[in-house]
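Design job #97: recover the sequence.
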């Protein structure tokens, strides 16, 4: 491939941090204890997210999907997909959250993505069991491992939070907002600030003229 874009889902494609909201709603006590530790990087995402998810009864999985189904998508995502299709640039969604959530929120747009990599939930036992093809290091979905699957001359990352930090540090061009922008500033890693996908589309349109 000449170019490829890797894009986070929660708080990036969605307007709010959907996955964090799910954790807080379905496991409030454990989330209150562990989420601040993860943001402060005192506890790995891999351990913290797994502990919270695996404390949720499997019987509530359908409620989780209903909870996220109406989550609004950030302005301009469809227009960015239109632009990328015209330029023949694939977009890969890499989420540290649940695949089922990505699928119910994006609906038919899923067919326009090159791929989705996320956490799979096994509901066959009493409590949710977490499976991830790319678990590694500090992450349940090690985004850098996902990126290594795809060979491209030009790689771009889009993200908003701690789950995107390793991906952003490993990528030459990063569109960052919210917590990710703060983390990158701490690491003195250059990034392009953004609020909606129309800004990203317009930036790339000028870049790729």
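Job complete. Output follows.
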């Amino acid at each position: 491939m000449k170019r490829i874009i890797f894009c986070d889902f929660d708080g990036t494609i969605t307007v709010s941090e959907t996955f964090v909201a799910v954790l807080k709603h379905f496991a409030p006590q454990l989330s209150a204890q562990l989420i601040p530790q993860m943001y402060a990087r005192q506890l790995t995402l891999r351990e913290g997210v797994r502990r919270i998810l695996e404390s949720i009864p499997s019987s509530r999985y359908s409620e989780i999907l209903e909870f996220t189904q109406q989550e609004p998508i950030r302005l301009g995502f469809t227009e960015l997909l239109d632009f990328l299709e015209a330029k023949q640039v694939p977009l890969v969604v890499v989420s540290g959250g649940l695949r089922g959530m990505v699928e119910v929120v994006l609906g038919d747009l899923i067919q326009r993505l090159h791929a989705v990599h996320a956490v799979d939930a096994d509901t066959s036992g009493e409590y949710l069991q977490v499976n991830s093809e790319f678990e590694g290091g500090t992450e349940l979905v090690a985004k850098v491992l996902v990126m290594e699957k795809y060979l491209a001359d030009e790689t771009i990352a889009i993200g908003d939070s701690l789950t995107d930090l390793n991906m952003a540090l490993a990528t030459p061009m990063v569109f960052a907002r919210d917590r990710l922008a703060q983390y990158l500033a701490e690491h003195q890693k250059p990034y392009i600030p953004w609020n909606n996908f129309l800004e990203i589309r317009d930036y790339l349109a000028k870049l790729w003229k």
